[in-house]
Amino acid sequence: MKLKSDTMFLIAIFIFFTLAVTLFSYYEYRQNKIELYHQIDEKLLASANGASLVLPPDFHSRAVEPSSIAKTEDDSNIDRLSRFAKWQKVVYIYTMIQKNGKIYFTASSATDEERKSGINLTRYFDSYDGASDELKNVFRTQKKQFAEYTDKWGTFRSVFIPMKSQEGALYVVGADIKIDTIKQTLNEKAINLLLHLAVAIMLTLPFFIWRLWHLWQLNSRLSENNDVLGQEVEEGEKKLNQHYIELQAILDATKESIFLLDKDGIILTINSTAATRMHKEPSELLGRCVYNFFPLN
Questions:
Q1: Are 179 and 258 found together in one domain?
Q2: 11-12-14 Cα angle (round to 5)
């Protein structure tokens, strides 16, 4: 029983260890996710806040009508914001205004592919028909907001920061990072944690296997010893029975009445001569008190 309990205890320790390492890895993954989102949000904030410094100082005072900004200046702004977005390692940085209930881009970065092909290239005063509710809410409340949404450019985590021009006109600066990039980073961290988990289990598993093998070997030896002991006990019982039969034969051969009693007078052995004189069979007398047949009074 002790050996079985030791084995179960060892298995329980291994299960507990595996669960503990798994829970710790999950906790680490959660912490990594929180830290990653914190870093991403800080990068988005820095990118959005820097956009106003990249664009001309009076740009948002002038960018109020479709004809206010020439194409050459728009091209220059696209180039500036695109290089800044690359440097910040974000996908897009852009500015927007709201006019007559509609949202318009006033400046935006672009990817190399968009600038080369012209497809999905955002230019000055292009309307943002797919604006998210979070963005609309920023124009309404004039409070900064993070959001995750999907539009024709992709699926992003973004920040929208309300700002005002020198004349007090409201505009919003946005910065985007693709959700796929975040998921890829998280997956890489998750794989790294899983590798550490696997290594931890693989390093400890040989010890548990060795310990279980040791207990199995001990159990095998104990089983063999028990088998040998059982055989010895069985042989001893056979010898005792044989000695009893021989002793009984010797007792039955004598003409004297012979009893073997314990301290309470219980008949342990009786020969046939004594049983015959008592008009009983020996089996009827064994285990009974002799004083029932020979009262003391």
A1: no
A2: 65
